[in-house]
Amino acid sequence: MKRILVPTDFSEHAEDALKVAAQIAKKNNCEIFLLHMLELPSQMSDAISGGSGIPEVMLFIKKANETFQKIKERPYLNGISVSETVQFERASDGILSFCKKNKIDLIIMGSHGSSGIEEMLIGSNTEKVVRLSDIPVLVIKKDIGKFEARNFVFASDFSKEIKKPFKKMIEFTKIFDANLFLVMICTPNSFKTTLVAEKVMNDFIADFDIQNYSFHIFNDVNIENGILNFSNTINADLIGLCTHGRTGLAHFFNGSISEDLVNHTVKPVITFKI
């Protein structure tokens, strides 16, 4: 993990994410890439692609670059290699394409979350990136000061398809020498006896050489509540999940536990794509 992307709209939430990125970068000798997306009206975008200079566009670029320079002078970025880019594209699409072009290892994003009708109608660029990104996404909800992942909850059904993203998760835990809490949430709709759940988890972990972990089985009314309640009981620093990256009708009907958690918990959440 050497290349971290922090998308920014220059808000406080984006700066909260950047502060965490700086701490991870210093701990792991990483480079930080700052990305600001400008979603312009179609006529402006056409003019840019045709090489025309539009005063309004030039002003947007100038202001963004001026803000970048101020951000790079923040004391918490001292000693870190930081590069900045202004890109003309829809935010979520631009973030994902930037990652592929620049071989990004981790995305760190700020999010204020939402609920109810606002969540349904407006959605969130953070949620879209969480759902669609092929690389891990760490979502920061507030200024958390010193970022720690000593108590790291990883919630899963521990099926075979989880094994590949689980390897990425292990790499992340090693950076922070984390205590890994592996938890299976049992609900009325997905109930397993303790013996069955323990066997599933033991069979899963047998393929990995990891230290500092423990198994937990937690019962709750639904998976999201189970993860949140368990995380609160052990005072988790970070919640880890795998996401299927569903789109379209599949996403509408099945929902997304990862996106719900991004919206409804103040704890940092990191997601790994299956």
Walk me through what this model shows:
This is Universal stress protein. Residues 1-141, 222-272 form the UspA domain. Belongs to the universal stress protein A family. With 274 residues, the chain is of the alpha/beta class. The protein folds into two domains: 3-140, 3-Layer(aba) Sandwich (Rossmann fold), CATH 3.40.50; 151-273, HUPs (Rossmann fold). 45% of the residues lie in helices and 22% in strands. It is built from eleven helices and ten strands. It has helices at 12-28, 42-49, 55-72, 91-102, 116-122, 125-132, 163-176, 194-205, 223-233, 248-254, 257-264, and strands at residues 3-7, 31-38, 82-88, 106-110, 137-140, 151-155, 179-186, 213-219, 238-243, 269-273. The chain has a ten-stranded mixed beta sheet, with helices on both faces. Strand 6, helix 7 (163-176) and strand 7 (179-186) form a beta-alpha-beta unit. Helix 4 (91-102) crosses helix 6 (125-132) and helix 6 packs antiparallel against helix 11. It is elongated and about 65 Å long. The model is unreliable at 114-123 and 248-255 (pLDDT under 50).
